[in-house]
């Protein structure tokens, strides 16, 4: 008998793997036109099937990703929970990989390399959904139902994270040539490049800032996460609400305060990091 809730692969899959925010839905009834009813937003690993870039008339770009979440049948899980079990169902990647079934895919706009920043976004979406419900007497019942459903969604999330713990995150979606050079050689090349920029570019700071501004959001996020010296002391965000005394010293993990802050900004350093990655 096939064990439920365990990710089993008949062969190795080479799709890139990322974290993303998954909107869990249950099919609604007649009164809502049989549309999906949001049960909550969670974080899950996913397989990235395709990425699409769209260019807008104002010069901006929109990037969307077609992904497959291994487990997302919250209705099946709720039914099993009512029967005294915690069954998250079969993984859906087998069906997609065999039949290319678009019903099993989801579209997301942001991918993450780690759980924590994705969780922040998921909770923001849960709070926004909660606020949209909270506007009349009827909504009090809906809000209560949503809170109960959300508790099960959180349990579902933990079970999915456990079932997918062996899925290794793909740090780079696109191949690069860095491995061609050893570290010492790359550092020397970077030093030559930065010295050339310093000599021949009128304003190096603006140069790096402009480089960062031309990046896609997920490209900026990747470069930001790869910075080893990120912290409050080099953050340029003007909207930080953290008190000054909380910005000094090290955090509980021994890193600079603000090293994992989602609001950290410094376009110049991100631009410099891009040059180092070239």
Q: Stretches where pLDDT falls below 50 for ≥5 residues?
A: 174-181
* Rg of Cα set: 22 Å
Cα separation of the termini: 51 Å
Overall shape: it is globular
| Total helical segments | 8
**Largest β sheet strand count, sense and barrel closure:** 4 strands, antiparallel
Strand arrangement, largest sheet? 1-2-3-4
Name the structural class: alpha+beta
Could you tell me the mean pLDDT?
77
Spell out the helices and strands N to C: EEEHHEHHHHHH
- The proportion of strand residues reads 15-25%
Number of strands: 4
Helix content: 25-40%
Question: What features would you highlight for this structure?
Answer:
278 residues, alpha+beta, 8 helices, 4 strands
Task: Write a compact overview of the structure shown.
The chain has helices at 74-82, 93-99, 115-133, 137-163, 183-200, 204-213, 217-225, 267-277, and strands at residues 17-27, 36-55, 61-68, 106-108. With 278 residues, it is of the alpha+beta class.
What does this structure look like?
By secondary structure, the protein is of the alpha+beta class. It is built from eight helices and four strands. It has helices spanning 74-82, 93-99, 115-133, 137-163, 183-200, 204-213, 217-225, 267-277; strands spanning 17-27, 36-55, 61-68, 106-108. A four-stranded antiparallel beta sheet has the order 1-2-3-4. Strand 2 (36-55) and strand 3 (61-68) form a beta hairpin. Helix 6 (204-213) packs across helix 8 (267-277). The longest helix has 27 residues, at 137-163. Mean pLDDT is 77; it is low at 174-181.
């Amino acid at each position: 008998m096939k064990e439920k809730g365990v990710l089993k692969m008949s062969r190795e899959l080479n799709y890139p793997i990322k974290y993303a925010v998954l909107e869990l839905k249950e099919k609604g009834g007649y009164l809502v036109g049989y549309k999906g009813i949001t049960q909550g937003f969670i974080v899950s690993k996913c397989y990235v099937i395709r990425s699409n870039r769209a260019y807008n008339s104002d010069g901006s770009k929109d990037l969307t990703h077609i992904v497959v979440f291994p487990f997302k049948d919250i209705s099946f899980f709720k039914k099993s929970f009512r029967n005294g079990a915690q069954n998250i169902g079969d993984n859906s990647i087998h069906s997609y990989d065999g039949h290319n079934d678009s019903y099993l895919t989801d579209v997301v706009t942001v991918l993450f390399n780690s759980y924590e920043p994705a969780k922040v976004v998921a909770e923001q979406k849960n709070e926004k959904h909660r606020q949209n419900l909270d506007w009349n007497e009827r909504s009090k019942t809906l809000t209560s139902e949503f809170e109960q459903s959300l508790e099960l969604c959180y349990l579902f999330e933990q079970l999915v994270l456990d079932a997918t713990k062996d899925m290794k995150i793909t740090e780079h979606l696109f191949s690069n040539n860095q491995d061609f050079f050893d570290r010492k050689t790359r550092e020397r090349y970077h030093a030559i490049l930065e010295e050339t920029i310093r000599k021949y570019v009128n304003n190096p700071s603006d140069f790096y800032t402009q480089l960062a501004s031309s990046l896609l959001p997920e490209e900026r996020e990747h470069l930001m996460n790869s910075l080893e010296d990120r912290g409050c002391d080099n953050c340029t965000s003007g909207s930080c609400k953290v008190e000054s005394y909380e910005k000094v010293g090290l955090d509980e993990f021994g890193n600079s305060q603000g090293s994992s802050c989602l609001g950290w900004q410094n376009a110049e350093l991100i631009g410099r990091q891009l040059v180092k990655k070239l």
